């Protein structure tokens, strides 16, 4: 008889946990979205960095051959990039700096850069910036 008396008063298994998933989702979803946006921005930064390095390499090689380096760098550079060519003696140094698109208007602007150095080729008319 005592078993029947207690069996009637017990609550079902999940009654105390009702709504806990909704509360945990509401607390964890903003953190998950922030992590997703940070990951997408990091992937875009790595892709932009690779584009800057490629553009700097092409510009340095072009300038070392006597062609206009900034024009060659601008062809390969990501959108909105700045190409600077410096000639010092027998070396050409090119730096390409580009902004990274960040998701969200209130996030700080990020920029990445790539640098390449090339030796001036013998017999060329001279490096051009």
Characterization of this structure:
With 129 residues, the chain is of the alpha+beta class. It is rod-shaped. The termini are far apart. Helix content is 47%, strand content 21%.
Question: Short description, anyone?
Answer:
The chain is an alpha+beta fold. The protein has helices at residues 2-7, 20-65, 69-76, and strands spanning 82-88, 91-100, 110-119. It contains 3 helices and 3 strands, in the order H-H-H-E-E-E.
Shape type: rod-shaped
Radius of gyration: 29 Å
Helix content: 40-55%
Largest sheet: 3 strands, antiparallel
Number of strands: 3
Provide key terms for this protein.
single chain; 3 strands; 129 residues; 21% strand; alpha+beta; 3-stranded antiparallel sheet
């Amino acid at each position: 008889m005592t078993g029947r008396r207690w069996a009637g008063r017990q609550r079902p298994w999940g009654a105390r946990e009702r709504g806990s998933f909704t509360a945990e989702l509401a607390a964890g979803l903003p953190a998950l979205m922030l992590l997703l946006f940070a990951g997408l921005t990091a992937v875009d930064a790595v892709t932009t960095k690779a584009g800057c390095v490629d553009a700097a390499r092409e510009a340095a090689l072009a300038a070392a051959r006597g062609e206009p380096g900034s024009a060659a760098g601008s062809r390969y550079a990501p959108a909105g990039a700045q190409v600077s060519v410096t000639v010092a003696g027998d070396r050409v140094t090119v730096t390409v700096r580009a902004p990274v698109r960040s998701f969200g208007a209130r996030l700080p602007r990020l920029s990445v850069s790539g640098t390449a150095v090339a030796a001036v080729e013998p017999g060329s008319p001279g490096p051009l910036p």
